[in-house]
Amino acid sequence: MNLEIEKKSVNAIRILAADAVQKANSGHPGLPLGSAAMAYELWGHHMKHNPVDSKWENRDRFVLSAGHGSTLLYSLLHLFGYGLSLKDLSVFRQLDSRTPGHPEFGHTAGVEATTGPLGAGIGMAVGMAMAEAHLAAVFNKPEYPVVDHYTYVLGGDGCMMEGVSYEALSLAGTLGLGKLIVLYDSNRITIEGGTERAFTENVQRRMEAFGFQILTVEDGNDTLEIGRAIKAAKADQAHPSFITVKTQIGCGCPAKEGKASAHGEPLGADNVIALKRNLGWESMEPFHVPEEVYGHYRKLADAGINAQDAWEEMFGRYVDAYPQMKGLWDGYHNVHAAEKLYDSPGFWAYEDIPQATRNLSGILINRLKDQVPGLIGGAADLAPSTKTHMKDAGDFSRDDYAGRNLHFGVREMAMAAIGNGLALHGGLRPFVSTFFVFSDYTKPMARLSALMRLPVTYVFTHDSIGVGEDGPTHEPIEQLAMLRSIPGMHVFRPADATETAAAWFHAATSSSAPTALVLTRQNLPQLSGSSKEALKGAYVLEGSSKEEPDAILIASGSEVFLAVEAKKVLAEEGIDVCVVSMPSMDVFEQQSQEYKDSVLPMGIRKRVAIEALSDFGWGKYVGLDGATVTMNGFGASAPAEHLFERFGFTVENVVQTVKTVLQGSPQGAGGDGRERRRCAFPEMAATTAPVGMLVT
């Protein structure tokens, strides 16, 4: 081993990271300087990866949970030949560069996850390790370990303080994920100073209690010691491993080493020069790397190319020996597997009886599992309530990784992070579930789902004051507006069986967006006018009998039937309205303007929106001349039917609201004078008889 070239190769990471931050005059140089030796040893001598094919299925995964140290990762990707150039490094944190402030999945080759919110990367890494364990259990055969790789995650003190890491690592230990290796960059510094101010626990003992193998590297610059620890971690297949690597933040910079000021600000031009001199670097020019260092990294990268070649040769023999497994493999990796269900009568079939949409969702999950073999998921200790258990699919545990039912425990945020990791790994289509009010716990990770454009499905049940007796702590009010506000999140609140099937079809066929299904606890009637048009986000459920309606009722979920019933009463009084079901605002907004105008003609300004949640967001659709029947405060504890009456979700109140809106200006006035269009008729007229909401 040439110790001199290894030393230069480690220092090349430091130099590139420091220069990138200095050029941007923004960033976090401390972690890259302190963790450079750890990262070099892992990527150069232990991690299986191929710069030529960053998406190779059997590569080891590396997640930089401490995403603020992104220049560490960018330097590695440049030196190993992943396509990042010196120019890319020189425009770090600049508009449209491939080197944004925090790593972004799908934006830069070799970045396995979007990280930055501390601890989130650890949760996603646990999901990746679970995916590897499941796929290995399903596909591996004697002498054919076609799924056989490790998940490495590097986190710092901040990651260990965040609650999401506690949740995720506790579950990882319970599951015995032996191919998960956590590298803890323990430099004992945070933004405010030494960790003794707020973080004095024994992290190693905590990890030992979780069920991890505990290893410690006293000198974060000793690559031999780091290498021995990684080998020991890989040797223990019964437990995940936690390696504490004691480092110095800002290592190598005389004026900054070990100081909080090294964390989140450039070193300064003079200190960058001092760093290079202290490390014995041969040039003071920014972004200079000796050719011998590049040559060394090219040799290291060759090992990954050879590893993939050997795997592909083995996979070919595997397919010959087990041809039936090739079909299953393709099924797991087919992102279009569910599309055939559009024309499947069995998928859309339902009993014409009142049912809660959570129950209908449970039926659909069990239909999907046989058509989408990669469907995997569960709930935060709520599967019996959220109806997310897959029959005869087994329970994922340390004794049976082939099980498809996941048990997350009461860990909503980690559950969502793990769902992201399952999707990022590939080969699986995950769903996660909890009560809708607890979507607040999932929100930071759901936001990352949308940012990464991951097809994770969120099943949220008990969607309104229909929760009833549990009271306002369990009755969501503002959560739907919160979810709808996340860019790229598709939110469905279906009104009956057909719309629930449409919501699940959308979720199961999505390739670039997460979907949230917001479902009722109480039973709802089946609506004869509902249709696959729900896939467009909104549609005319019941049209007008006149050239144009006097008003439009818009509703989602359980309140659609309320709108239908109000229409009947209004018709008896000579007021003609059409009913629009809007299960998904965001999907509706993706439709053509022509279609949107056919559902909500711009000239018909007398509109009433009905939804047993916050009115936030409805202004766009009801305008200045409309009104809402919504919640403007918290709920209460009582049977659901009493709450709907108390808070105005009655036919009488909807009828009166429509009348009030119509009295606001002369009936039939064109408002802004633009041409008004008639609401399109649905294919079938609605004839559903009144059925009360039944809480089960």
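Next protein, fold it too.
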Amino acid sequence: MSDSQPGQRNAWHKSPAGVDPVEKGSTVKLIGGEAMACSDAEHAAGGAALELLAGAYAGAETRVLLAGPHTTALTDALADRCAAVTCLVRSHADAQALARRHERNPRVRVLCGSLDAFAPDAGHDLVLALGGLARLHGPDGTRLTWQAALDRLIGAVAGAGVLLLGVENPLGVHRLTAAGGLPAPDPAEPVGHSALVARLREAGLHVAPSYAAFADPARPTVLARTPELDAASGTVPLLAAEAAAAFGAATRRRPLLDDPRRLAGAALRAGTGAQLAPAWVVAAGRQPVCPREPLPPAFIAGGAHAAHWDTAVAYERADDGQWSRRLLSDSGAALRLVGRVTRMPELLTGRVAPDRLLEELLLAACAEHDLPTVRRLLRGYADWLAAAPPSGHLAFATCDNVLTDGVRHELLDPSWHLSAPIPVDEVLARALRGLAVTLLTTGLPHPWPASLDVDSLTVSLSAAAGRPLTREAARGAVALECEIQAARWLLPEQAEQELRCELGTVTARHTALAARDWRAMTGAMDRLAAQLAEARDEVAWWEERVRTSNREHERHLHRYQNSRSFMVGRAVTAPLRLARQTVRKVAGK
């Protein structure tokens, strides 16, 4: 929603002199300020969640303006559904790609240029700028202020039309935890959700309840209405778990300052999830805004897996205050299968307990070195697994997929299962080894010695759970973990083998299996330094004990050698010593 690299703008330039930038037969209309070299396709806004949100405001007679780069899936869906679609992009390469893709569709028109050269006419029923306003400015055009750019888009909205605007949060969790460079903030851009809504209302617009977006600002997979992120809402633990899964998928193997999953969860529980969300999607219009199709309070489209498994799920609150979920389309209920791993989306319907993730509770107890709580949580979990009937669903009952209130346990996502049930000890080994990998690779504090490897830590966790496992059983869980991960991410055979090697050789310094955040790494280094200092102090104490003992022995020996009994003994044994020396001399000759 803002340029990913500040220096990238230097790569934008016009076409060389004397070269016609419009290809023969192209339907692209140049309006001025075009960028001829680079493409915004990598940062295009879209994804299944935004497609569902945009589709709720689009109809067969809707005239749409797509301002800025949007994914081809989103553009195709609107082009097939709506009466007319106008695409405004600054990149000439992106404009040509759009024109070629829709050359047989007369309802699609492509404009290429900067927003300052765009002359809007208030004839669009739906204006979408889901990627924000930053990528609407060309390198040679006049860069409008945020408010001026907003006014330009508002001018394109019909009297009863709707503006769907995506705004990246400059103080979002993704920025607070990022390790790389960030673009310079726009001082004219509103900071905070309340400021954004106020600016839209000052522009004379009615604002509908906006959605907070997690975790990628341009392609979020979790959307929730901002009032639902209040700490008093019973769905906050559920959304915290879904947001954590979204951040885990979005930040895999990336360097971070801090783990966004923990920060997002803490923000949601504190009632500040809307303020720290990576982005907001706001619907506004000159008249009160109402979607053509009802939108749920929260919905998830996508997640921590490959797109092959995606399905859209809505969270809704019943009259009794309980939360339930349902599929948003019948097409998403189709059975999905890869090897032994199967997903049945129809199981994602029904009520959901508003409890917290077992992994979250365990990590909090480990950080406090609260072994009684760790044992209580693990034993309750192990007993629940042992009491459940054999099922392929239990293979996915890992600590990061189980909701609990400390007594009751429930799968967060029950749609996954293996085609054949597996033994409880194998399920427990996979879950506890996954927790041990998390503790080691993320540098989180825990009450066990830092010298333990992943298998030894798994054995310790199983002992705390009351179902001791051997190191061989812990290592045996690697095969099951690789099979499931390879299926969920559709990994090729070589990548699966690499993952197997990584999981089999996990150490505290292993950085490939998780996004390493510098704060956790610094904390781990501090803990290791403290443990090393304690070990050095212990070694120094034992060395001093040995020196003291040696001095004590020497003093006792000196006293003994000067005693009368020792002198008498020496006098009695003197002839024997003399005889022995004489024998040795004779034998030597």
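About the second fold: The CA atoms of residues 478 and 504 lie 7 Å apart.
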